[in-house]
């Protein structure tokens, strides 16, 4: 199963607006994507609630994973978002 280790770049972490943007993009992918912090169980990246309960803050490393056809492309797209400043400030 392909994985990506990515640092959260949004100053507010994966909360509110960044979580909504990430969940929307993850839901648009052809494969199910999970996200976790090193010490936590994975949650679905397409779930706003899951992303918010993950508690990923600015500077935290998260692990994205997906399986199936198109997984690498999907992970690259989501990793790019996580590593972007999505909070608009």
Give the overall silhouette: globular
The major β-sheet equals:
4 strands, antiparallel
Report the end-to-end length measured between terminal Cα atoms. Answer: 34 Å
> Which structural class do you get from the secondary structure elements?
alpha+beta
Uncertain residue segments: none
Q: Give average pLDDT, whole number.
A: 94
Strand percentage? 15-25%
Number of helices, where a helix is a run of at least 4 consecutive DSSP H or I residues = 3
Record the strand order, biggest sheet: 1-4-2-3
E-strand count: 4
Order of helices and strands: EHEEHEH
Gyration radius, to the nearest Å? 11 Å
Helix content: 25-40%
Give a short summary of the structure.
This protein has 89 residues and is an alpha+beta fold. It is built from three helices and four strands; from the N terminus they run βαββαβα. 35% of the residues lie in helices and 20% in strands.
Features:
single chain; 89 residues; alpha+beta; 3 helices; 4 strands; 20% strand; globular
Report on the architecture of this protein.
By secondary structure, this protein is of the alpha+beta class. Helices cover 35% and strands 20% of the residues. It is built from 3 helices and 4 strands, in the order βαββαβα. It has helices at residues 16-27, 48-54, 71-82; strands at 3-7, 33-37, 43-44, 61-66. α1 crosses α2 (48-54). The protein is globular. It starts with a strand and ends in a 7-residue tail after the last helix. The model has no long low-confidence stretch (mean pLDDT 94).
């Amino acid at each position: 199963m392909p994985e990506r280790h990515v640092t959260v770049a949004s100053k507010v972490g994966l909360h509110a607006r960044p979580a909504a943007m990430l969940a929307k993009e993850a839901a648009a992918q052809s494969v199910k994507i999970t996200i976790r912090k090193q010490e936590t169980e994975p949650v679905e990246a397409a779930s706003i609630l899951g992303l918010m309960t993950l508690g990923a803050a600015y500077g935290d490393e998260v692990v994205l994973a997906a399986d199936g056809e198109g997984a690498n492309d999907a992970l690259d797209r989501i990793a790019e978002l996580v590593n972007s400043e999505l909070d608009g400030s």
